[in-house]
What does this fold into?
Amino acid sequence: MMQADLFANERRDVELGPGAAILSGFALDVADALMTHVERMSALSPFRHMETRGGKVMSVAMFNCGAWGWVSDRSGYRYEAIDPETGTPWPELPPLFLDLAKRAADILGFDGAVPDACLVNRYVAGSRLSLHQDRNERDREAPIISVSLGLTATFLWGGHQRSDRPARHRLFHGDVVVWGGPSRMVYHGVDELKGADHPVTGAMRYNLTFRKAR
Ligand code: MD3
Ligand code: FE
It folds into this structure.
């Protein structure tokens, strides 16, 4: 345990590219509170496995909070103000979420960016997210901010073409990634999650992704 703690303290922020960085452990002090909000909100808009345009069921379970929510079905990918599963608006973005996203964006110099959408992803052993670009947001100037909670994942940081071989980085509980500017449209994904047990989230990994959709 001491060894693991020592190692955690050794981790440094990682610059991924222009306008993109991993802020190691940036959300650690609020991680428990974030998870409490995730549990509370998922009682209002449950986690669900969306279908892709091609008709495949995603291995990652999702719901949204905030004014706009990312949805996928046979007709494609888009943002919706109403949760199609419940017929009601997505749960409100908790002030704690907004504050954390703003503080992280500020560090990279993206001040004044106010997210209006937060996608909550839930991974179990075997879940993965194949290489993609986040391109459904109207405002491509605003950065995206992501928060990793629970089990460690390997994320894939590609280039501007799908065929660019991605670099691999591990994302730990409490890590925050900010990417904007020239890195905003980079291809990225998450490698298949390995099964393990995390003291806070058990068999799961959660990822909060803040975007400015409109
Ligand atoms: C951006 N989520 O929801 S976030 C997504 O961990 C999504 O659930 C992933 O991609 C997740 O659309 C990744 C962190 C991340 C990692 C690498 C990136 C974002 C990135 C590389 C380039 C651009
Ligand atoms: Fe993405």
Observations:
- The first strand starts at residue 14 and ends at 17.
- The chain has a mean pLDDT of 95.
